[in-house]
Amino acid sequence: MLDASWIAPTTNTDGSPLTSLAFYRVYYSPAPTPCPGTAFFQVASPTPSPQPNTTVSFRLTGLTIGTLYNVSVTAVDLIGQESTCSPVAGAVAQGSVTVSPTGSASFGSVNVGSFVDRTFTVQSTRAGTISGAVSTVAPFRIVSGSPFTLGGAGATQTVTVRFTPTTVAAAIVNVTFTAAGDDISRLVLGVGIDLSVIAPPTVTITSPRYPTPYTTSSSPITLAGTASANLGVTRVTWSNSRGGSGTAAGTTNWTASGIPLQLGLNVLTVTARDTIGTIGIATMTATRTIAFTFTDDPLVAQGTIVRAAHFAELRAAIDSVRTARGLMPFAWTAATSTVHLNELRAAVRGLP
Asked: What angle do CA 280, 284, 285 make, to 5 degrees?
């Protein structure tokens, strides 16, 4: 472990008073220049507007004992803007316990009155017995694993932290693990929401020709469209009432390719999901036919003699095939004794 301290900033880069400080990033590395870098701790600021000459302290843990670490600190405001790196300071790491995960823990968006749990693991780094406890502040609380006793190097204890929002607001606090005189902090974040006033996602099919009934002889086909949600769209999926499902490429602008169609009517459903699992749905119908083209001219005499065919039986046969393929029986108009060849053509179009 390493103990670090610094003077809290009080102004922005333009000289105006600092009123939106969210947290600090404490960068560390054996390399001479740790900041910027991928290894850092996030430390919540106790106030968005620090007073002059305020000292902030933090203990770095999970380091390799006996290794020289260089440390540099930055400040981050509520919209994610990060300051330049502070001057580098170095020291040799010592320690008694570690806490994982080493970064911050997000509880996501939680409906007011509900809760979400996250777990941390405390592990001893030394021989002997180490006792400790875990603390935090509302709307977070410790539900299990505190106090704890670790017996010997490598012993672990799981600690469960619960986020139970009571208002519609973001919460950023520290969870503090205290053991053998060491205080180890982990930043936890959560957002309270009210599902009763949050609309579900909306999803729209823009291609092909939605919501106009769609008929095609092609399979598979591609759908495309848009989706939106107050909490953000995380995934768009599709399914076919006649079989098949998959995930579209993209979210706010999505494309679903390779959708197989069966002969006849297919009901296609596109579903958009937001960050808390709420869904929005759009549907369309797609009727698949089989392309069929007559090549003769019904008004010109043909050379082949039609020897015998009962038109009533021919009509019944055509209608039975249409029904088997999911089509309605044909609306015959001419008398069976004077059936027109064009009408027969229309009846069998779309049949395999």
From this structure: 150
**Given this chain, do its domains 2-92 and 97-195 carry the same CATH topology?**
yes
For 344, phi and psi rounded to 5 degrees? -65, -40
For the stretch 164-185, pLDDT in tens is 999 988 999 999 998 876 778 8
List the chain domain ranges. Answer: 2-92, 97-195, 198-288, 291-352
pLDDT at 308: 41
Residues facing residue 90 across a β-bridge: 70
Question: Among residues 68, 83, 87, which one has the least CA distance to residue 24?
Answer: 83
Is residue 11 packed enough to be buried (19+ CB in 10 Å), middle (13-18) or exposed (0-12)? exposed
The structure's pTM equals 0.43
Q: Which residues contact 309 (CB under 8 A, 6 or more apart)?
A: none
Residue-wise pLDDT for 282-341, tens only, equals 999 998 887 655 455 555 555 554 444 456 666 676 766 676 566 777 777 766 545 566
CATH of segment(s) 198-288: 2.60.40.10
What number is the average pLDDT over the span 82-111? 89
Looking up tokens 């580098």, which residue turns up? 88
CB neighbourhood size of 75 (10 A): 23
What distance separates the 2 farthest-apart alpha carbons in the chain? 109
Tell me how far apart the alpha carbons of residues 216 and 220 are, in angstroms, rounded to a whole number: 10
Q: For position 60, what pLDDT does the model report? A: 86
- Is the domain covering 2-92 a CATH 2.60.40.10 domain? yes
- Who contacts 215 (Cβ-Cβ below 8 Å, separation ≥6)? 286, 287, 288, 289
Residue 347's pLDDT is 61
3-state secondary structure of 35: coil
Mean pLDDT in residue range 84-109: 89
Are 152 and 128 spatial neighbours (Cβ–Cβ below 8 Å)? yes
CATH of 97-195, one of 2.130.10.10, 2.60.40.10, 2.60.120.260, 3.40.50.300: 2.60.40.10
CA separation for the pair 72, 27 (Å, rounded)? 5
Question: Is the per-residue pLDDT at 352 higher than 60?
Answer: no
